[in-house]
Design a protein that fits this description.
This protein is α+β, with helices and mostly antiparallel strands and about 200 residues long. About 30% of the residues lie in helices and about 25% in strands. The relative contact order is 0.16.
Length: about 200
């Protein structure tokens, strides 16, 4: 599939490499893994550790907005406020069926990935509070790793990418739309400059 609202594999890799180059400059932790020469076999990944304040009930996250607001990234601060670790991992893949980027992610309420995984219901609560209004969050098997991950379904990405046709980096433009719906996926403002050159040229 190609045309408006899609991104080719070659364009995905080109955008991803620009994204990684900037991530390295600002020490943001993103990596490009896999085989770039084989469509669908390379992906972006970042893992970050946050901390949940101990006064929250992390077994029953009844108010996810309050929970997400009480995350911090400073382990020194956490050691003095009885905060619990939360590991978040985000992957950006390319879908051959839809010709769009796809976001996979997981969260673990522990020091290590794989222990005390955040449930679909807990993550769904956060997504329902986002501006994108995703109606579903699916737990699927990661197509490269073969392990369970949460996924934002790619069907909506076609519509989002239709608004990025003037962007120099469609991947960043798309990610700016979907980041609020993916378990505290923060996107530095530095990345937006990757999208601007073509936009500026178009207005001249």
């Amino acid at each position: 599939m190609d045309g408006p609202g899609t991104i080719s594999w070659d364009e995905f890799i080109e955008n991803a490499e620009s994204f990684i180059a900037l991530s390295n400059q600002i020490s943001d932790g993103w990596q490009l893994c896999g085989d770039k020469k084989v469509p669908t076999q390379a992906y972006l990944i970042r893992q970050k550790k946050h901390f949940i304040r101990d006064e929250l009930d992390t077994e029953n996250l009844t108010c996810v907005e309050d929970w997400s607001d009480k995350l911090c990234e400073d382990p020194y601060e956490a050691s003095f406020t009885n905060e619990r670790p939360l590991v978040l991992e985000h992957h950006i893949l390319w879908s051959m069926s839809y010709s769009v980027p796809v976001l996979y992610f997981n969260g673990w309420k522990s020091d290590f990935p794989g222990i005390n995984r955040i449930s679909v219901e807990e993550a769904q609560g956060l997504i329902n509070g986002s501006a994108l209004n995703y109606s579903e969050l699916s737990q699927v098997i990661h197509p490269i790793l073969g392990t369970p991950y949460l996924q934002l379904h790619p069907c909506m990405s076609h519509e989002l990418l239709q608004h990025t046709h003037k962007s120099k980096n469609k991947l960043v433009s798309w990610l700016s739309f979907v980041a609020p719906a993916a378990l505290r996926l923060d996107l530095s403002q530095e990345y937006y400059k990757l999208t601007l050159e073509t936009l500026q040229d178009a207005h001249e």
